[in-house]
Write a structure and sequence with these properties.
Layout: E1 7-9, E2 17-23, H1 27-37, E3 48-52, E4 57-63, H2 68-77, H3 86-89, H4 92-96
Length: 97
């Protein structure tokens, strides 16, 4: 998903977080992802909606907590360059997503 539309955000020396966002047409898919990744979120995290001014549409999104494990992913994939060990990181299930 990092190679697609998943965003890893990291500011300065803080740990990174994941931001999952889809258009409202894909709300069911985003809620599916939330069910998978909610363990990385705080208990108060919910799927939210926001207006996307550029496209005059709406989007649904959620963000995880800032975690050291996510920072490791940020280090591997940003700037968006494939890590040398990409073959060991991709599984059939991850490729499906």
């Amino acid at each position: 998903m990092i190679l697609g539309d998943l965003y890893i955000s990291r500011k300065n020396s803080e740990n990174a977080l994941l931001k999952f966002e889809q258009s409202t047409v894909n709300k069911d898919y985003l809620e599916h992802l939330f069910n998978i990744f909610s363990y990385l979120c705080t208990e108060s995290t919910v799927v939210r909606t926001r207006d996307v001014k550029i496209t005059n549409t709406s989007a649904v999104y959620f963000v995880t907590r800032q975690l050291a494990a996510i920072t490791e992913l940020h280090t591997l994939f940003y700037p968006k360059v494939l890590p040398h060990n990409i073959g060991s990181l991709i599984t059939a299930k991850s490729l499906a997503y």
